[in-house]
Amino acid sequence: MPDRLEIARNWLPRYTGMSLDEFGDYILLTNFHNYTRKFAEQFDCEIRGTDKPMQAATNAEGLTIVNFGIGSANAATIMDLLSARQPKGVLFLGKCGGLKKSSEIGHFILPIAAIRGEGTSDDYFPPEVPALPSFKLHKFVSEKIASKGHEYRTGVVYTTNRRLWEHDLEFLDRLRRNTCIAIDMETATLFIVGHYNRISRGALLLVSDVPITPEGVKTEESDAAVTQSWSDTHLQVGIEAMTEIEESGEAIRHFRY
Fold it and tell me: Is the pTM of this model over 0.85?
């Protein structure tokens, strides 16, 4: 049998249509095709993998964006496959549902941790291992948000595999008791699998709905409004933060595993 790294080296190009040497040292991850398209338009670079499960593009400065899809299984897959490239930093640009009055639509959230409610991460570490970002990467991102005059929140995000849970009153009550600031489907998995693969990682989440109230449940119309108002800023903060990390030459991983 081929070893794990050999498999990842074969599968990353197969899933994205991009060769290993085309991936940059810094990676943006997203769930959205329009983020990938806007990135490619901004830097006049080609989107690879339009006929593949994932799409990717790399600009002239060596920053890569990958649209890996939705859900914790896909999040684990891309973080495993990126072990073939061993990037210096990975930042997830995703959306989340706000669970507190302080997390309003259009706010940015930098998770200090994520609760592993998705189950996928249990295949990598025991449940007691916390899902955490890399502090220094989040430091760069927070400074970039502040420099642009935007507010952001910090807190714990709950990651779930369930897409339709808004009707489940017992689940909603559990979310309140966990005092989470937001809910999504990828962050805990990305943090845990990044830790497993020794990849520095972070997440900048955009609150796209407030599903704890009936009127706050996401619809196609409400999501389109959030995308129109905030997606450009969301993407640009990620681009500039990761570009400045590379230009500064400051190491994100400041300890040995």
Answer: yes
